[in-house]
Batch of 2 targets.
Target 1
Amino acid sequence: MDKFKEIAKGKAKSMFTTSNPSELIMEFRDDASAFDGKKRASLAGKGAVNNQFNAFIMDYLGDNGVDHHLINLMDNTHSLVHSLDMFPIECVIRNRATGSICRRLGTEDGLILEKPLFEFFLKDDDLGDPLVSTEHILAFKWMEKDELNLINKELNRINDFLQGMFRGVGIKLVDFKVEFGRYEKNGKKEIMLADEISPDTCRLWDVNSDKKLDKDRFRKGLGNLIEAYQEVARRLDILHEQSNIRPLKYTKPQAVKIKKK
Ligand code: ADP
Ligand code: TMP
Ligand code: ASP
């Protein structure tokens, strides 16, 4: 499958059309960005690690019945995905308070939350991705009510699966961000997990030392970001050696037919 036209160049990934109108190629670049693009750098190898990481996690969630957009891993930095009508919303799930919630609410850093806290942000860099309520989401029709209900259920399930997966390798899943898109199946609207799940979009702390193994290393200028990502990948058995990434094979449980609106 060849790349046709670049239809979106985000801060860390590029999306390309393909010969199949319902499929896109997602390219993971080495670009790192934080604070809505105010801090940027290029970190050699980040694209490849995140691409493999994302495929591993999507595959794991797929095995557990989560409908996701990944069709297959094409090479080091490219994945083939279903083309979706994306909701302009970033869904953040927090198991502990850290990051922006502490800045906003003055909450104690690292505080364990009794149950996962969901926050929704409008995807708009110019506005600084503002926090929005579910009422805003419905009032401005960014999602339908049934879609929001389904997404809330999926967020709980995804958090459960990922927490268990990371806990098994001595990592606390502190928080993470996911995005969903809409597609049509037999004339019915369905939702699908999209974009990426990787150490760029999660906060991962070592269970004993609380060492940060995620993009906070870049945000906070802690250094050794690739080494930290590789450490997580090694623990999950995605990376066998320093630069030797295990080739993964992906099979989606059921093929979905996607019709763009
Ligand atoms: P950002 O927009 O935050 O700078 P990226 O650099 O990650 O993000 O760019 C990827 C873009 O592709 C994002 O806007 C994301 O919403 C979009 N996207 C992710 N998955 C899909 C998909 N399956 N179909 C269409 N668009 C997608
Ligand atoms: P926050 O504390 O900065 O709001 O981030 C919460 C989680 O969401 C954290 O795991 C990082 C992730 N995240 C993204 O993936 N993209 C973003 O644009 C932001 C702001 C956060
Ligand atoms: N993803 C956002 C950016 O690239 C913010 C972040 O992750 O901190 O600027």
Target 2
Amino acid sequence: MRKLTAEIGVEDFGKEIELYGWIHEIRDLGGLLFLILRDREGFAQITLPKKVVSKEIFKKARKIKRESVVRVKGVVKEESKAPNGFEIIPSELEILNEAETPLPLDVTEKVKADLDTRLNHRFLDLRKLRINSIFRIRSEVLNVIRDFFHQHGFVEVHTPKIVSTATEGGTELFPISYFEREAFLNQSPQLYKQTLMSAGFDRVFEIGPIFRAEEHDTVRHLNEAISIDIEVSFTDHEGVMRYLEELILRIHEKISERCEKFIERIDTNLSISIPELPFERVKYDEAIEIIERRESIEWGEDLSTSALKILGEEFDGYYFIVDWPTKIKPFYAMPYDNKPEISKSFDLMYGSLELASGAQRIHKYDLLVERMNEQDLNPESFAFYLEAFKYGMPPHAGWGLGLERLLMAMLNLRNIREATLFPRDRHRLVP
Ligand code: AMO
């Protein structure tokens, strides 16, 4: 008999149903008491006219505290003035667990709280349907991603998160103790997804955590994020860029179709538009020219936050920055044959936000070792990875896409912490 509030319709009018949820609001008009019950899907008005409901129920309802958990059984009645056009006249009201007062956070949002307070009491913050909607969409995005890759013949894999080496230069590693040895939390599945190409998987994807000991505290960095990674054999950077733009298009289409209710809850002005393919490809050199008009930048420099801001003003929505200088991309990016100072690499951008990066990879052992040496990496510590290149590594390419960054772009979230349940940042390790 249990129903969710959103499942109640005209067909239930006059019938008895059972709801479980939290007491969102209480309105006491003396002889008439309203309890607003909230569950995952929405609200239902529980109406208690003193003269109609039992004395015992009325007394119990009057003492109820906000955010207590209840079970309500009663008859559904049409009521045009109630939130969804119906009300429930209770014949049973059970308090399953009483909430203490005062509440550390107002779930009705009449009293606003800053992000820190919200994150400190995240379980309460997540009870807000507006906030909960972000994670309902996140779940659907993952569903769409898995469907997309399975339809394209990819195999879903999981690679180790406890590792012995770094993959992405630049950001620091989190060290951990692994019995008597030193180990690290993995920054990227990079080395393993490439190894799987030598293992003959042809096309793999992984959805899993990446750990980055970023010192800086920004609205776009987390120390633990979810990365969607792919690796594909017998293709190049262009081949995997096509997968990426098609995936983004599919996500936009499906989310706008399936998540209307959640989008509206996040912001009534929010709409998920359908991007046009192909996304614009802006060469690194062209990006530098645009930036140079406003601030000085040297060829071969990575793009700073302010440089990216300039590009964000020039380009709307999704676009690629392609053909990066080899020296600022990781050792595994494939240089062009005729212009080795430029690599077959790309970043997917949304305005000034980097969402993904990828490249065609070096599949030749000697060149890979040469590039490691150039970047002052010790090939010996990559022995397990390098071995896979000696005995038949196919040409391949791939990318990594940050899930929280993608949600920021799609849902217009100002802070990446909004897109993760329990963010890990420079200052936050609990909850
Ligand atoms: P990169 O280091 O650019 O590339 O990471 C890929 C994507 O992961 C997301 N991301 C982050 N999101 C939040 N907080 C962070 N600290 C953070 N760091 C990264 C971003 C970023 O674009 N091995 C390559 C991918 C590849 O070439 O296949 C890599 O890890 O959205």
